[in-house]
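Can't attach files on this board, so I'm pasting raw text. These are the components:
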Amino acid sequence: MNLPSQLLEQAVAEFAKLPGVGKKTALRYVLHLLRQNPDELKQWSYTVARLAEEIHYCEICFAISEKNKCEICSNSSRDHSTICVIEDIRDLIAIENTSQYHGTYHVLGGIISPINGIGPMDLHIEPLLKRIETGDVKELIMALPSTMEGDTTNFYLYKRLSSFPVTLSTLSRGVPVGDELEYADEVTLGQSILMRIPYESSITRK
Amino acid sequence: MNLPSQLLEQAVAEFAKLPGVGKKTALRYVLHLLRQNPDELKQWSYTVARLAEEIHYCEICFAISEKNKCEICSNSSRDHSTICVIEDIRDLIAIENTSQYHGTYHVLGGIISPINGIGPMDLHIEPLLKRIETGDVKELIMALPSTMEGDTTNFYLYKRLSSFPVTLSTLSRGVPVGDELEYADEVTLGQSILMRIPYESSITRK
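---
Top answer:
Structure tokens for the assembled complex are below.
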């Protein structure tokens, strides 16, 4: 695809670096931006430039934050004895949107994946161990994806934490709320039978 | 979706303005950008800012150009007696990629669409008429989409140009080269039978 302007070509190349965006979609994005007025375009560019300078990561839980300590870690009304271990910030956003969790988080920044060359040292696991060493942490909820990589990471954390007096838990897996049994996949349905819970506790949790 | 930082929220809102991009995809894009090093992010932002200032439109054909006159309009080896009328710059790129066309273009900047409130005055039709008034133009190829709006625009141009000694043509429609007949849609196959061409001319054009 030959573009009629070098600058256009350059802009398309930048947008084509976004995940899942090819040259055609990138061109569509750039042409859309060109239809905006110049002030809006400058606002756009300014926002992206600010990202480079103003976005920091919380020094405790590694979530995105504008300060050194994120709002959740500096909130004294949250339960600091419970840490939810997650892959990235999107999981934090998803869990926060449920309004069901009042503890803190720890963003690993990925999961152990030998195929992609990601080992434990590439993740924020050592800072997590340091948080637990302080002795204030009672429970660690491992909310990692239920994939082979997620399971590997869970098992790695389980081994590393075996000597600490901390309860390890993972998210319950099962048929989604409101779903028909016949449409659930076999693995999920099987899990939800094996991991069945006392009826009484299912009432009290509702 | 509540995001943990106002700046992040703002950046996501900017990206969510792109065509076909919702808040979730926008967040995915922004998190991807945040994983880049700050220099790359600044380069990104600088490229977008340059778009606002350095991209101009050719004063003759309205194609995107870095100068007042685009490369095609200022190229004396192109055939300036033929103008291909197109909806937007993407059509120019597509036709240029075929290497089969050596004339010039005229970008309308849209097509007549009463539903979307786009009338002839919103398009670059008057400048096109002025180009034709000079008398140097012999043929006008209307390469607009074969939709109702495209047909309306073609008909409008046909009416406006009836008094000028210029040949009007449109792209041929038919079964795509290499396609099986059985998979062609009925309208296209019907058109390609009605608009059949002498066998001899199909050989000489290959």
